[in-house]
């Protein structure tokens, strides 16, 4: 009986020229790591821009992530056509992704500044970046399989290595964006730098590891494409400061005196030092040129009817709410809780803003606490109650502010308020759905409420404002008490020896009643309250 000859194992497929199997596997995994980090930076960049440019963090984050995930699946399907030329396809794909992702912040900010079309551009970039990121994985899988077959690694181990490098890269990219890139470089430069890294790594991997497998025409194409992308990104990075100045000029006008990007928000101060300033926080007006159209007198003075020895101002770092409070001689102490020290520093030092807030920060009765109002109220449980609480916070729906208009937040405010105290809430531009949700949330937290609205006179509407409504929404609230049936009285402060000095913009009873009627005309049928787990302020 003849024995069969021993089986000869099949010869492994040829390895990429220029590197051995083991030497080639590490560069591919390193490229996976870098591509994952860059992809997450693009994604977080779009989410951050969505929150900043539109102010609707939850809604726009959902749109960006949903569109990107869908587009990634579509990109994975489209990449099947490139697998036969995986190396050159991957390099060209990375060059295109570097160009689109790197320039995304510039284009979106330009659309916001000059075209007022940032929402549509945001969806388009989320889709384009998602398609390109999704196409990376099948091509990288093909490249790493070529190397792994040479190293005789099983398919399961190959997939495990690829996804491990991908997930670790995403972790590093996410942490670097939040703690290093965004605080130090800003949104525009971060995107451009990420694009440059993306293009360099993709081109270097293919040209070094698989370069000898490419034709001369393919090598010239890859070199030209990557060089062109890097030149575009380098020119954009060199001009980014000029671009930002031009965009701010388009958004805020020509006299931008201060523009600061803090870890909390962007703060812009406009106007000459000898005229009323404009203060913008995250692109939205807090002070619009003059003080005659501001809401602070109408917000503060109705709440000062009754005892007001101890006053708490939540937000209001510009000092304008504190200015109105400090006009009362019998106010003993004012505590301003402001999360952003930059706004307070400007309110203390900028000549135009100091004049506008009446040197409020020079009053010995005023104390400033740099803290987020939500955790600060939670920690203030043992403090003496306040007679008046003034909430002058960014409007609901803007980035990071929705929780400051929640049932839980108003429950904390009620705990800090005296039994006969009053809470004044500014809700921002009067959009009926958001405004009446604030009012419903206050009632659910145990307050009785009196809603009212300040009209925006002709010429007083902020840049980019719409005609929705009646201007600015306000609510006067008081803890519900069976001994005081009905809502709090909406009227000017009681006359007395410590009455408001003459010459102030103290609203009259007739004006406040007109403001209440104005608000009631926009009341929709019963909106539910907003909570931390069920926010209701998205459009």
TrEMBL record:
Reactions mediated catalytically: S-adenosyl 3-(methylsulfanyl)propylamine + putrescine = S-methyl-5'-thioadenosine + spermidine + H(+)
Main location: membrane
Low complexity: bias regions: 499-514
A GO MF label: thermospermine synthase activity
Membrane-protein topology: Multi-pass membrane protein
All copies of domain PABS, residue ranges: 234-471
Transmembrane segments: 26-42, 62-79, 91-115, 121-141, 162-182, 188-209, 221-240
Catalytic residues of the enzyme: 392
Assembly and oligomerization: Homodimer or homotetramer.
Annotated function: Catalyzes the irreversible transfer of a propylamine group from the amino donor S-adenosylmethioninamine (decarboxy-AdoMet) to putrescine (1,4-diaminobutane) to yield spermidine.
Protein name from the UniProt record: Polyamine aminopropyltransferase
Taxonomic source organism: Streptomyces roseolilacinus
Recorded name of the encoding gene: speE2
């Amino acid at each position: 009986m003849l024995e069969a000859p021993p089986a000869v194992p099949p010869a492994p497929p040829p390895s990429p020229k220029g590197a051995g199997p083991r030497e080639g596997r590490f560069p591919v995994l390193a490229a996976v790591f870098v591509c994952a980090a860059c992809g997450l930076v693009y994604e977080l960049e779009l989410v951050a821009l969505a929150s900043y440019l539109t102010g609707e963090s939850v809604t726009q984050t959902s749109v960006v992530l949903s569109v990107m995930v869908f587009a990634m699946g579509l990109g994975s399907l489209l990449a099947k056509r490139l697998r036969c030329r995986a190396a050159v396809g991957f390099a060209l794909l990375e060059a295109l992704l570097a160009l689109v992702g790197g320039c995304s912040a510039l284009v979106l900010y330009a659309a916001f500044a000059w075209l007022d079309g940032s929402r549509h551009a945001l969806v388009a970039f989320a889709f384009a970046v998602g398609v390109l990121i999704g196409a990376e994985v099948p091509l990288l899988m093909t490249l790493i399989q070529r190397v792994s077959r040479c190293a005789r690694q099983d398919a399961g181990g190959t997939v495990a290595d690829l996804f491990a490098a991908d997930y670790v890269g995403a972790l590093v990219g996410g942490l670097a964006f939040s703690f290093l890139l965004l605080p130090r470089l800003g949104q525009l430069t971060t995107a451009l730098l990420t694009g440059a890294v993306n293009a360099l790594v993709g081109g270097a991997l293919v040209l070094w590891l698989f370069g000898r497998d490419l034709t001369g025409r393919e090598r010239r194409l890859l070199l030209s494409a990557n060089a062109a992308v890097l030149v575009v990104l380098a020119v954009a990075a060199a001009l980014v400061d000029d671009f930002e100045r031009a965009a701010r000029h388009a958004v805020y006008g020509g006299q931008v005196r201060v523009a600061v990007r803090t870890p909390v928000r962007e703060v812009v101060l406009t106007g000459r030092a000898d005229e009323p300033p404009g203060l913008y926080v995250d692109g939205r007006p807090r002070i619009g040129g003059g003080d005659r159209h501001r809401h602070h007198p109408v917000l503060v003075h109705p709440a000062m009817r009754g005892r007001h020895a101890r006053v708490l101002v939540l937000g209001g770092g510009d000092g304008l709410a504190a200015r109105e409070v400090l006009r009362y001689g019998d106010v003993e102490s004012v505590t301003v809780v402001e999360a952003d020290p930059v706004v307070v520093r400007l309110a203390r030092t900028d000549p135009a803003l100091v004049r506008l807030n009446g040197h409020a920060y020079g009053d010995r009765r005023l104390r400033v606490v740099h803290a987020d109002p939500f955790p600060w109220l939670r920690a203030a449980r043992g403090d003496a109650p306040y007679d008046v609480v003034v909430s002058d916070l960014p409007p609901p729906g803007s980035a990071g502010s929705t929780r400051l208009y929640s049932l839980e937040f108003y429950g904390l405010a009620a705990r800090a308020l005296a039994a006969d105290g009053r809470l004044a809430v500014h809700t921002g531009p009067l959009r009926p759905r958001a405004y009446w949700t604030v009012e419903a949330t206050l009632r659910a937290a145990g307050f009785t409420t009196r809603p009212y609205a300040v009209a925006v006179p002709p010429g007083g509407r902020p840049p980019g404002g719409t005609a929705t409504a009646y201007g600015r929404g306000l609510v006067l609230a008081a803890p519900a008490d069976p001994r005081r049936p009905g809502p709090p009285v909406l009227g000017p402060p009681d006359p007395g020896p410590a009455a408001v000095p003459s010459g102030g913009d103290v609203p009259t009873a007739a004006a406040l009643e007109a403001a209440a009627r104005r608000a009631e005309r926009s009341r929709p049928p019963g909106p539910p309250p907003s909570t931390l787990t069920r926010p209701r302020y998205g459009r």
